[in-house]
């Protein structure tokens, strides 16, 4: 089965005092390229977070982020004394400049001013919060892999159609094979017939003709290409998560056989089939880059 490297997953977990949300977005990459954004309370545990994420995703360009929402009971705030002092000084200055009285109830005035409260966050997460983070990460990884699998199923259908297309074109090569060799032989003999003033050994000509035609034989290329097509299908159906690199190698081998088939064809009809095979193979190679 195939998994795409493109996916998205979200996981949440709660403690008595906080709700933790973890999100993962993935794209294709040759290796694991992991970027994390964590609340300050979890910065000391970043390496552990990276290990948990990497273990479940294997490879790809991964953007992982976490947020923590603390409940009102657990939220801690404090008065910003410097801000209060600045407001008081400005009000007193305005009182002197404008000739109006200062407030009778300073607290009632100052505590209504913006940004006089500031949230106080713990320097480090608690063990309970870390356990919740682990559950959120596990949920996000599972959701992301489910998304990757759904995308992988679409890739399987795409590859299956393209492999069938190359196989159908390969089957058409036989129709050209029956006419190709006699046509090549006739073309050579016609060329020799025009050289009426040159004498040549007919026996040696036959030997050279056989040698030349054997070099144009494409049976081995057809067999190897058919084997690669079967191997591609088998690899797609094999158990496991990561098949992208192997499918890429198989696609390269398919390309070699198709190129050799084209160089040996010496026939316009076969060349057309080869061009169509190459076009389909390029589509396969492009999408293989998205396979985990």
Please provide a written account of the structure.
With 292 residues, this protein is an alpha+beta fold. The protein is 61% helix and 15% strand. It contains eight helices and six strands; from the N terminus they run E-E-E-H-E-E-H-H-E-H-H-H-H-H. Strand 3, helix 1 and strand 4 form a beta-alpha-beta unit. Helix 4 (127-193) packs antiparallel against helix 6 (219-237) and helix 7 runs antiparallel to helix 8. The longest helix is centred in the middle third of the chain and has 67 residues, at 127-193. The mean pLDDT is 83.
Features:
Ribosomal Protein S5, domain 2; 6 strands; alpha+beta; single chain; 4-stranded mixed beta sheet; about 290 residues; elongated; 8 helices
